[in-house]
Specification:
InterPro entries: DUF7017. The protein has about 500 residues and is mainly alpha-helical. It is about 60% helix and about 5% strand. The longest helix has 20 residues. The model has no long low-confidence stretch (mean pLDDT about 90).
């Protein structure tokens, strides 16, 4: 097969090599002018030696035409486009496929074939078997090269970019239909994306409200994959594809006219992955995988200190791989700004034992929180209170937790009911409050600061209404700038 497109491409190659007008070459090549006139025009700018080279190149083309039966075949790309335009997708497919298989590096052929397959994909979005088959046909016969360009995107070819985005939108519509569809389509999705993250475009600093098809697909597919497929997907794309916009907060106005702030995509992805790893069995989320992601968190925490929950997830992951000393160091650093939150003390208590564990549980109970939020803490501290023979306090907590559970859930665990029948509960008088726990909670506060060096500070503002003291201080290095911080008045001992 030697097509009009091949012929024109060869003429254009001669045009660029010898700097001959393309229109002049076409006129001669298509017998619109004779050779004498053609040669006369060339002699105006070309030496005889170069003229002979041009004629030799043209003779090679004419020989190609002769070997092709003395004719030029219709351009399959143009013909396929024409057939697709009039709604004859199958005929268009039949025309373009043989040419593509023989010329799989022809980007125009890949794009034309891609748009034909997009029509088949769009029509089959409601039938997962047909959809997967159509996407497999595309992957079997065409490869999208996600090469980067100087402007940051995966391609400078806008036609290819539009095609890729259209197919990604189609895959997203399939994924949105549920977990079955998402898990079934994943293998072909990864093939389409080249088993890497280069399909995710690198945008500039400003995106002018343009929606990223690749990023929306990632956000939707991650929550619908089963555990094995989720890990396969994240292993494929990793965490190096974020661009500057992915680290920025965004805002939108909801139906009530309220301004809603949205966390950066990078922060959302990192938090989600950490939660996923924590929820998985260690045989699936292996120690090697956990340690690898801890390294990712270390890097992101250094570069993005405003991602406030990363230290928390890092501490939890460290605990899961039994790196308890590092976990305690991480969580205490994190807890200094969250010491009014009950769950912080609950977390720290998991890393300590004996009296220090008890002190942290006391601190957690004294934080302001809804009763139903601290039932887990209460269930942990009651056995320790019994060991310490603090029966009045144990009875107080048991009465509180039973009341809360009955109001919230209408039932209590059997263990709580058994405690009510034990002699210590029957004989003890309930404490009236948690005041006696305050001394233990104060000792827990010391855990947060015992590894910090002493530093001179300058009080800059005292907010008596909120009980907060703001201060400034110099870092340890002689090059350090002035830094700022705050603490609560009631933390002063």
């Amino acid at each position: 097969m030697y097509t009009t497109k091949n012929y024109n491409d060869d003429l254009y190659r001669i045009c660029t090599k010898y700097y001959v007008k393309f229109s002049l070459l076409q006129d001669f090549g298509y017998n619109r002018i004779n050779q004498n006139y053609f040669v006369q025009q060339l002699k105006l700018t070309k030496e005889d030696s170069e003229l002979n080279e041009i004629l030799t190149e043209l003779k090679k083309l004419f020989e190609k035409v002769r070997r092709n039966g003395g004719k030029l075949d219709r351009d399959p790309i143009a013909e396929a486009k024409r057939l697709r335009k009039i709604g004859k997708q199958q005929e268009a497919f039949n025309v373009i496929l043989p040419y593509l298989q023989a010329n799989n590096d022809d980007e125009d052929a890949v794009i034309t074939f891609g748009w034909i397959m997009y029509d088949f994909l769009k029509a089959s979005e409601g039938n997962i078997d047909n959809y997967i088959n159509n996407l497999a046909v595309f992957n079997d016969n065409a490869v999208i090269s996600f090469e980067s360009n100087l402007f940051g995107g995966f391609t400078a070819n806008e036609f290819k970019k539009t095609l890729v985005n259209s197919i990604l939108w189609s895959i997203r519509r399939v994924v949105m239909q549920g977990e079955l569809f998402a898990n079934r389509v994943l293998p072909q999705l990864l093939r389409f994306c080249g088993n890497g993250a280069r399909f995710i475009e690198k945008r500039g600093r400003y995106v002018n409200g343009e929606t990223s098809a690749s990023r929306l697909l990632i956000k939707d597919v991650r929550s619908k994959l089963n555990d094995t497929n989720y890990l396969m997907f994240m292993d494929t794309i990793g965490f190096d594809w974020f661009d500057s916009v992915d680290f920025q907060k965004t805002n939108f106005t909801n139906d009530k006219g309220e301004n809603v702030e949205v966390r950066p995509l990078a922060e959302v992805m990192l938090n989600f992955h950490a939660k996923k790893l924590l929820a998985l069995d260690i045989f699936i989320a292996t120690e090697q995988r956990l340690n690898s992601f801890i390294d990712v968190l270390n890097s992101q925490m250094r570069n993005n200190p405003t991602f406030e929950w990363l230290p928390y997830y890092k501490a939890k992951l460290l605990m899961k791989v039994k790196r308890d000393e590092e976990a305690l160091e991480t969580v205490t650093s994190f807890a200094r700004t969250k010491s009014k939150e009950f769950w912080v003390w609950d977390l720290i208590s998991e890393l300590l034992s004996d009296d220090e564990k008890f002190n942290c549980l006391c601190a957690g109970l004294l934080c302001k929180s809804r009763p139903d939020m601290i039932v887990g803490l209460q269930e942990k501290i009651i056995p320790i209170l019994l060991e310490k023979e603090m029966f009045s306090n144990a009875k107080f907590e048991l009465d509180e937790i039973i009341s809360t559970r009955m109001k919230k859930w209408g039932k209590i665990p059997r263990k709580l009911a058994e405690w009510k029948n034990e002699s210590w509960y029957i004989e003890a008088n309930s404490a009236e409050s948690r005041d006696v726990l305050k001394g233990y909670a104060d000792k827990a506060e010391e855990i947060l600061y015992r590894t910090l060096p002493f530093t001179d500070i300058f009080v800059t503002y005292i907010n008596k209404e909120k009980g907060v003291i703001n201060f400034a201080y110099l870092g340890n290095s002689y090059r350090s700038n002035i830094k700022e911080g705050y603490f609560y008045m009631d933390s002063i001992k």
